[in-house]
Amino acid sequence: MDPRWTIVIDGHSHDALDAADATADVSYGDGSVTVGDFSTETLTFDGGARLGRIALGCGHSNQGLFVGAAGLLGLGRGRLSFPSQSARHLRRRFSYCLVDRLSKKRSSTSSSSIVFGDSAVPSTAAYTPLVVNPKADTFYYVEMTGISVGGARVSGVDAAELRMDPATGEGGVIVDSGTSVTRLPARTYAAVRDAFRAGAVGLRVARGGYSLFDTCYDLSGRAEVKVPTVVMHFAGGADVSLPAENYLIPVTSSGLFCFAFAATNGGLSIIGNIQQQGFRVVFDGAGARLGFLPNGC
Where is the Peptidase A1 domain (predicted)? Predict the structure, then answer.
């Protein structure tokens, strides 16, 4: 989620990192809002490691999707994020792996994890350079060069349409843990969807779609099905081959599965957390790169 901070001291706006005993009014891209105190604290971790003067907020009035959560850890590229504030010690390096919360194959002991520091950056991940957007420093931008379905590049995927315009800051592709479904420009999405439909022969189509999904199948009574492969290609030669459960997902308990991509109404494309499941997603700020390591949980 994209935070928009307003820090107020004595009725006046201030630089957030210089604030003490301030009020924080924070809104996010999904409409969630929190209002509370803004201050600095010393954080202590398992093993005794301590980080001092970490700016954080304590929300007293919370509305939106995070209501009921114990807290929210900011991992963006902005000055207030935890990686930025701890950069002197942890070098803006972290990685996480999100388990598939819907998979029947997941064991009861498996859980998602996050690692900070140099140990968070495996050498075996497939890396692509991070792209800087001077107009939006919060997000992790990457350059997507194409998508393959069923072993063939989708001809309707135009790399130029997926590229961020540095002059305006518009467009581009970001990797975001707070968005569920990968969103693509309408023409790109239509090309990928049509290629998947063409390869998903033999599956019983469910007419009408479901929620934001327009490509769904009735797989009730089927223990196993064959579907086209989906691979995302990035600058630098990083190819990310998605497991089938990362793009054909159950949406009802009665056997309805949908293709878990959607079109975006704006120019920004987002690689969501459903497509990230099972990968160790590596954010190497020191090396200005982002990586994907399959089976990383």
Answer: 1-293
Task: Please indicate whether residue 30 or residue 179 has the higher confidence score (pLDDT).
Answer: 179
- Which residue type occupies 278? G
Q: Considering only 24-33, 84-93, 153-162, which range has the smallest mean pLDDT?
A: 24-33
Rounded (to 5) percent helix, strand, coil in the chain: 10, 40, 50
Instruction: Phi first, then psi: give them for residue 223, nearest 5 degrees.
Output: -80, -25
Q: In terms of Cα–Cα distance, which of 207, 144, 187, 178 is closest to 274?
A: 178
Please say whether the beta carbons of 282 and 120 come within 8 A.
yes
Strand partners, 262: 183
255 within 8 A of 218, measured Cβ to Cβ: yes
Residue pointed to by tokens 């604290």: 41
- The whole-number pLDDT of residue 265 equals 83
Per-residue tokens: 284: 């190497």
- In degrees and rounded to multiples of 5, residue 116 shows phi and psi of -120, 150
Distance CA 16, CA 92 (A): 19
How far is 76 from 177, CA to CA, in rounded Å?
10
Q: How many residues does the chain have?
A: 297
